[in-house]
Design brief:
By secondary structure, this protein is an all-beta fold. It has one domain. It is built from 1 helix and 14 strands. It has a 5-stranded antiparallel sheet, with no helix packed on it.
Length: 251
């Protein structure tokens, strides 16, 4: 092996010292080669310069895509996605009449390393299809889940837990974050709102002058919300809203 001793290293022509492909230059133990020099930052706005241990490149850090499931289906990992944040909310329970409202579905959230996973089946819990009349039992919402990783149970319908009471909220499980959905209102004067979930409360309430307003607008509510009650005792409560599975994808 030959050694070259120099106090200064200059380019033979121009201002560039060439390190040929396949060669390394060690400066005080730090290796310089064609892969260790930062790439051109032009047109790379908003990205971070990162190294994989071999070469440096500009990449997006943070969520790069999102898949939303409002009905059951299979999540498939896109190429280059390494981690995901999954948000799961259960379906809402159905309302009754005279302020007796359904509860919201529970909520769970988890960070998952998916480098060894190709697909996961997502179950989306139905909202209660049975908003009912005063003193009747509103139907319960269905459970949502992301495979066996995390799930969120549905909210109970009005009067399911005890007569003339609002429904009890569902709850998340298996996630890094697991919380209850809000409970429904019980028997009071005229109207009661459906329980509030992670994304908000149930649909609007209405006076008897618009006696079908609550029912006819029952789908205009956040995912997982409980069904609002019908006006007084002679109007039907709203169904609960179906749940959702939301997958935020990261490189």
């Amino acid at each position: 092996m030959s050694n070259v001793y120099a106090n200064e290293l200059d380019a033979a022509s121009g201002q560039v010292i060439l390190i040929p492909s396949g060669y390394n230059l060690s400066l005080g133990g730090t290796i310089l080669n064609e892969n260790s020099i930062p790439p051109d930052p032009e047109d790379q706005g908003g990205k971070y310069l990162i190294s994989d241990g071999t070469s440096a490149s500009f990449k997006n850090i943070g969520p790069v895509s999102c898949q939303t499931f409002f009905s059951s289906g299979t999540w498939t990992r896109p190429s280059g996605i390494n981690r995901i944040i999954v948000k799961v909310i259960g379906g809402g329970g159905g309302g009754s009449g005279h302020s007796e409202a359904g509860a919201a579905g529970g909520y769970a959230e988890e960070v998952i390393d998916v480098r060894g996973i190709s697909s996961v089946y997502c179950t989306v819990g139905n909202g209660s299809g049975s908003g009912t009349y005063y003193s009747g039992n509103g139907g319960g919402g269905g459970t949502s889940s992301f495979g066996n990783y995390l799930s969120a149970s549905g909210g109970l319908g009005a009067n399911q837990t005890y007569q003339h009471c609002g429904g009890l909220g569902g709850v998340g499980s298996g996630g890094n974050l697991n919380i209850y959905g809000g409970g429904g209102t019980g028997h009071m004067n005229y109207m009661g709102f459906g329980g509030g979930g992670f994304y908000g409360s149930g649909t609007l309430s209405c006076h008897g002058n618009w006696n079908q307003g609550t029912r006819s607008n029952q789908l205009k509510a956040p995912r997982g919300a409980g069904g609002t009650s019908g006006y007084q005792g002679s109007y039907q409560g709203a169904n609960g809203m179906a749940g959702a599975v939301i997958v935020m994808e990261f490189r």
